[in-house]
């Protein structure tokens, strides 16, 4: 069986390594993949947003199954286009991917169906937004409607900062058309939990919970990034909270999408905040999270491809989705300067015994050598019985990897450990 995976980051590397465990898989193509993924799949220089070229490649190579991992191609309709050529896919169609593609859509969906989320207002007119901010509660949260590489959210601590954010999104168009409409919402507090789930539109199966670390530096300082590390499971996410989320958030979301004629099939990611008033949705993503996937999939004991195919064929309720009763920690090694300016092209050395634990996000092959090519370069995951062991092991592996200008956070998992100790 030949499988095609669209995307080229650490998340895709984790998906590919897991799919490779299936004995029936004879070949995996990664479009575009990256220099590190090349060790596990055949990388083809087709961009993840080049839908026509992706479909042409899939048809020409008669691939048996396609996994579309990133948000952009999903929102652009990659799954619709592949399915139109008879290629079974994992991932939502465009009309369902809108749950991530438009914050206005997702907020209105939650309001209509009574799914707990922050109070909000939508604006398409800048003057109206500025007027609203004159009396809005502060801090407040400003969100661009469309995709913005994870940067479209601004937490404003002052009224001036909030107004400046509105100007930059609606007047200066820093996120392009994504800022034509904006959401201004209530500032919530509480621990954050990421829950990825498999769903075929009938059944929803949450995966093991996880915790992202979004800020660039230790103790949650520095700029927001795509994620500097993760642990799973997330100790804040108790069985009781999981039950509440299933009843009040997960099932209502699946049902709401069905009722709107936008059945969601694929991985639906719930970004949750456990507020004093109960769990609320901060955001939906229409795909696996990055770097959540790099801790969630290593704990998956069931065969990933089997589960994915069951989602495609709408028989998810018939398959087992089992996770190990263990802990995982992923530490991201990035290029100094990320998420702003950084240099590329430094040689990466990964000892053989560590390779299995490494998910490469930003690297290229140059003159036969693996070199850095992105802000986030790679993630190192360790799975152990306990959280302290997993943290210690992943940092132990990080020590063995080298590239110039590398930096990483030293406190991945520290907050989770403290939460465990509080209990
Ligand atoms: P997002 O890009 O939607 O994941 O948002 C980025 C981060 O902003 C989230 O992970 C939260 O930490 C924070 N955030 C988003 N919305 C809110 C909110 N309503 N209240 C407090 N923090 C928020
Ligand atoms: N780690 C957050 C995301 O994938 O959007």
Notes on the protein architecture:
The protein has 423 residues and is α+β, with helices and mostly antiparallel strands. The chain has helices spanning 10-19, 51-60, 71-75, 78-84, 94-101, 103-112, 126-133, 159-170, 239-259, 293-296, 304-312, 387-398, 414-422, and strands at residues 2-7, 27-32, 42-43, 65-68, 89-90, 120-123, 140-144, 153-156, 182-186, 192-199, 204-206, 211-212, 215-217, 221-224, 229-232, 266-275, 278-285, 327-335, 358-360, 363-366, 369-372, 376-384, 406-407. It folds into 4 domains: 2-93, Rossmann fold, CATH 3.40.50; 119-186, ATP-grasp fold, A domain (Dna Ligase, domain 1, 2-Layer Sandwich), CATH 3.30.1490; 192-318, ATP-grasp fold, B domain (D-amino Acid Aminotransferase, Chain A, domain 1, 2-Layer Sandwich), CATH 3.30.470.20; 327-422, Glycinamide Ribonucleotide Synthetase, Chain A, domain 4. It has 13 helices and 23 strands. Strands 12, 15, 18, 19, 22 and 23 form a 6-stranded antiparallel sheet that branches. Strand 16 and strand 17 (278-285) form a beta hairpin. The longest helix is centred in the middle third of the chain and has 21 residues, at 239-259. It starts with a strand and ends with a helix. The model has no long low-confidence stretch (mean pLDDT 96). Glycine is lined by residues 150, 212, 227, 285, 289-290, 292. Adenosine monophosphate binds at residues 118, 141, 150, 153, 155, 185-188, 192, 214, 271, 282-283.
């Amino acid at each position: 069986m030949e499988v095609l995976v669209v995307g080229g980051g650490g998340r895709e590397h984790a998906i590919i390594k897991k799919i490779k465990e299936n004995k029936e898989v004879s070949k995996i193509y990664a479009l575009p993949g990256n220099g590190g993924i090349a060790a596990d799949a055949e990388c083809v220089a087709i961009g993840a947003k080049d839908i026509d070229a992706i479909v042409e490649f899939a048809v020409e190579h008669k691939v048996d199954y396609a996994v579309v991992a990133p948000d952009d191609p999903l929102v652009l309709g990659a799954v619709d286009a592949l399915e139109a050529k008879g290629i079974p896919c994992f991932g939502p169609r465009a009309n369902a991917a809108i749950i991530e593609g438009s914050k206005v859509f997702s907020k209105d969906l939650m309001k209509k169906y009574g799914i707990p989320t922050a109070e909000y207002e939508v604006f398409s007119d800048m003057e109206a937004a500025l007027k609203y901010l004159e009396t809005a509660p502060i801090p407040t949260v400003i969100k661009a409607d469309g995709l913005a590489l994870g940067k479209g959210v601004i937490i404003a601590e002052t009224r001036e900062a909030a107004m400046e954010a509105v100007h930059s999104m609606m007047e200066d168009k820093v996120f392009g058309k994504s800022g034509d409409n904006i959401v201004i919402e209530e500032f919530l507090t509480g621990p954050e939990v990421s829950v990825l789930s498999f769903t075929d539109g009938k059944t929803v199966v949450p995966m093991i919970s996880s915790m992202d670390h979004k800020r660039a530096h230790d103790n949650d300082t520095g700029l927001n990034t795509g994620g500097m590390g993760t642990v799973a499971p997330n100790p804040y996410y108790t069985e009781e909270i999981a039950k509440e989320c299933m009843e009040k958030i997960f099932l209502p979301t699946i049902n709401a999408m069905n009722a709107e004629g936008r059945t969601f099939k694929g991985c639906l990611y719930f970004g949750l905040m456990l507020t004093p008033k109960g769990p609320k949705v901060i955001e939906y993503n229409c795909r696996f999270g990055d770097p959540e996937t790099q801790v969630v999939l290593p704990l998956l004991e069931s065969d990933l491809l089997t589960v994915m195919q069951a989602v495609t064929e709408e028989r998810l309720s018939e398959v087992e989705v089992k996770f190990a009763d263990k802990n995982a920690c992923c530490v991201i090694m990035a290029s100094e300067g990320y998420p702003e300016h950084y240099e590329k092209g430094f040689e990466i050395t990964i000892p053989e015994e560590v390779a299995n634990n490494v998910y490469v996000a930003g690297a290229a092959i140059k003159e036969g050598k693996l070199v850095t090519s992105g802000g986030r370069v790679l993630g190192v995951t360790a799975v152990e019985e306990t959280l302290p062991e997993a943290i210690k092991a992943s940092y132990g592996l990080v020590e063995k990897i080298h590239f110039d200008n590398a930096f990483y956070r030293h406190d991945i998992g520290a907050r989770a450990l403290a939460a465990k100790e509080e209990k």
